[in-house]
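Our consortium's second objective concerns turning raw sequence data into structural hypotheses that experimental partners can test. To show how far this objective has progressed, the report includes one record in full. It was chosen at random from the queue rather than selected for favorable results. The single chain below, 571 residues long, was entered without modification.
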Amino acid sequence: MNRLMFTTTAVGLALSLPAFADMEAAKTFLDTEIAGLSVLDRAGQEAEMQWFVDAAAPYVGMEIKVVSETITTHTYESQVLAPAFTAITGIKITHDLIGEGDVVERLQTQMQSGENIYDAYINDSDLIGTHWRYQQAHNLTDWMAGDGAAVTNPGLDLDDFIGLSFTTGPDGKLYQLPDQQFANLYWFRYDWFTDPKTMEEFKAKYGYDLGVPVNWSAYEDIAEFFTGRDMSYIGGPAEGVYGNMDYGKKDPSLGWRYTDAWMSMAGMGDKGEPNGLPVDEWGIRVDENSRPVGSCVARGGATNDAAAVYAITKAAEWLQKFSPPAAQGMTFAEAGAVPAQGSIAQQMFWYTAFTADMVKPGLPVMNEDGTPKWRMAPSPHGAYWSEGTKIGYQDAGSWTLLKSTPVDRAQAAWLYAQFVTSKTVDLKKADVGLTFIRKSTIESQHFTDRAPKLGGLIEFYRSPARLAWSPTGTNVPDYPKLAQLWWQNIGDALSGEKTAQEALDALCAEQEKVLIRLEKAGVQGDIGPKMNEEQDPQVWLDAPGSPVAKLDNEDPDPITISYDELIKSWN
């Protein structure tokens, strides 16, 4: 039975079972949708489904609303898994799909008003600093031992989740349960990069081997080389080829492009995993008690230091010189599919969430045998970067229960959250959306077999790199308030309305206004901001670590590595 057929069947089952649930619906689900694609054997699957049936009994007939952003994984949950859960448990789930910015806005509204808009949210773990400081979300450690104990799956197996370090606060408590994860990596046309004619001409022009760029100097050379190049000799376009892909529209997604570790890839911020300390990838400094103390260089922050200015300057330059003209008016969602059209040679900052849409048969970037013409690799780093500084971002959309939700509704929603992340379901869900949360799924034979058709995705998630690529950390005390400042100010730099320095001076000043307001309001207690006094920026620039002064040479010698050598390091 195909997915659409099952969705219809599941909805029908849900509508026909308004007052009770039984295992027949579960067995139909296991037969038709899971169809053996699970890390559990059939007996294990049925045992887990029986637990959901039994645990849901007190909540049969309830109508629960949850929300997430719109990506392939969540579409599958909304259209397939929610109706299945409804049929199996008798709890009517409405899983809304809206824009990521809208998810944050609804969450913020519920936190501010106390009105129960949704019973659970899948929101990015980027809000971990917000949830830890405001204490308006249940910490799941205490929830699972208290009000959520009777509805916590004994087979949940938290140790199997790969992203718990991203959703744990400085207090050691778990605040969110990962539902999907995807990283930003370097994407490139492996077929073009390994073509002898292309390699020969690149080396003749630049004096070194064409390969995966290790630093931004090499990335820029490669972008220049491919932009406007006739690739018809290898089956590519004769014109309209570009060496870079990005997006530049003034839109909330433009802010994520930069808060999602673009600055640290350039070398801004301190060393540390999963995030730089004391200065993180937003340029926000915290003290020894994790209290934010500044964003601008004058207070010890780095949002407007030389590394940050370099990061924005390069992004603007590459967008204008080496990207399709339409890219300047695109958003994250619009730009994501462009490399699949076959005219982009490489992309510095490509989200693996687009993998599912990049492996469809018949695309210009796919071979007839189902293998991709492209590969993914670690993103190159900028001139200010040094070993130990954060090198990449990973999105971890995670289940969050707010305390403003009535307990019984939160309990019912928690059952659904565990259903869509369960061992019974996760392998199939990952097969559809390619956003991984469980070690057992990643290590499965199914993904060993599928790995050659996924361009390096499985190799990445089986390597230690899956922890080095991390979401926004706990330095950010109010993600909804601060994130909205980024896209407006970065947009000014990309449009040419301001220089990079002017835009970042404005951004850090606006971030500090928010931090000062939070400090004065005292709403986050003794873990909220406690701002440093301003002083001569040179004091901080002369001190060890971040922030940093301008380098004499922001264009070091280019370095590349062959993909096949690189992948060995992941293995």
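The partners drew two points from this record. Confidence is low (pLDDT under 50) at residues 1-20. The longest strand covers residues 177-189. Both points have been shared with the crystallography group to help prioritize constructs.
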